[in-house]
């Protein structure tokens, strides 16, 4: 059975989509069958994996609201071993349409449960808000990976998220675990990045990944070419960092959950 990891942070611009795309590609490169689910109505992950916007394409909306077959929505990406359930702007309406639906927080979990046996990892890219779509993602997940930009107020933001996760454990998903905290957009030339990283490691200890994702031009450029960074520039620091993160996720997850080996 595959391990389901939600990539979440209520704060925007911290690298959630970048992490989902590149961690997914890196896990696939280590021969782990991986599925990425785009749960954000902006559809940026779908674009970053090479799928131009197409109004005719079936997306997560069709699964959540129209109960269409998974086979009609699932896409093969350019990365061998990495599949995608895409998103589009229609997902904005899903949060409203789900309000009166029975078991509305568990619609995505019902879909994910059908897919877990086919994958080693399922990664869910969450929107930057604690809305019904994010609640669906966290209800479906075994654990949460939290990207944090190494900047001022980062600690405050992640503390709010962890408070939210504690409430969710009491309500919709008692077994939800912290997969890890990932430092993103790290610039070792600045005192601020170093201080924020030190503070986070001091506060959260072993929950913070050893791997740090640097500020990297190639990493920023790759989505505009519709490619994970490892296919855009395998020798870039961004590509190397996400490959290292994938190894850490596999090793740590195998130790904790006995899955993904």
**Largest sheet descriptor:** 8 strands, mixed
Cα distance spanning the termini = 11 Å
CATH topology heading: Rossmann fold
- Helix count equals 11
State the CATH class.
Alpha Beta
pLDDT averaged residue by residue: 91
Number of strands: 8
General shape: globular
Query: Which stretches are poorly predicted, pLDDT < 50 over at least 5 residues?
Result: none
- The CATH architecture can be given as 3-Layer(aba) Sandwich
Rg result: 17 Å
Outline of the structure:
This protein is of the alpha/beta class and 261 residues long. The chain is built from 11 helices and 8 strands.
3D architecture notes:
This protein has 261 residues and is of the alpha/beta class. Helices cover 43% and strands 17% of the residues. The chain has one domain: P-loop containing nucleotide triphosphate hydrolases (Rossmann fold, 3-Layer(aba) Sandwich), CATH 3.40.50. It is globular and about 50 Å long. It starts with a strand and ends with a helix. The model has no long low-confidence stretch (mean pLDDT 91).
Question: Top keywords for this entry?
Answer:
17% strand; Rossmann fold; alpha/beta; 261 residues; eight-stranded mixed β-sheet
Q: How are the secondary structure elements laid out?
A:
Layout: E1 3-7, H1 16-29, E2 34-38, H2 44-48, H3 60-64, E3 75-76, E4 82-85, H4 91-97, H5 107-115, E5 121-125, H6 132-140, E6 143-149, H7 154-171, E7 177-186, H8 191-204, E8 208-214, H9 217-221, H10 229-232, H11 237-257
Parallel strand pairs: 1-5, 1-6, 2-4, 2-5, 6-7, 7-8
Antiparallel strand pairs: 3-4
Helix pairs in contact: 1-11, 5-6
